[in-house]
Amino acid sequence: MNHDECLLWHKRLDHTSMHTIDKISRHELVIRLLKYNFIKDKVCYKCVKKKQVIASFKSIECVSTARPSKLLHMYSCGSIRNKNLGGSKYVLVIVDDYSK
Fold first, then answer.
1. Which of 36, 58, 59, 64 could cross-link to 1 by cystine, CB 3.0-4.6 Å?
2. Buried-state track 63-72, b at ≥16 Cβ within 10 A, e below 16
3. Exposure string over 29-61, b if 16+ CB within 10 A, otherwise e
4. Which residues are CB-neighbours of 54 under 8 A, at least 6 positions away?
5. Are 27 and 12 in contact (CB under 8 A)?
6. Tell me: the pLDDT tens digits for 83-96?
7. What is the DSSP letter of 55?
8. Phi, then psi, of 34 in degrees rounded to 5
9. What pLDDT sits at residue 1?
10. For residues 86 and 6, what is the distance between their CA atoms, to the nearest angstrom?
């Protein structure tokens, strides 16, 4: 199997590691995934980019706003494995810079 076919299966299986795809192939768990030796040290561009660490900013000890709700920091994350009480799989966190 050439490198392009390995990457195609890697993408089809939601960017699963080549080691895991090799195990799936050996145990014949996926239809049409032939028994090939997948190159375990190959990764795609998206996987490399996803694992990069973002540089963080230095913490500021003083409050930079004069009143509440002037500056809000918002963070979203998801899809979370377990749904919350409202049935949502995503979370939105809002932090007021004045009151933290």
1. 36
2. eeeeeeeeee
3. eeeebeeeebeeeebeeeeeeeeeeeeeeeeee
4. none
5. no
6. 777 777 888 889 88
7. P
8. -70, 165
9. 59
10. 40
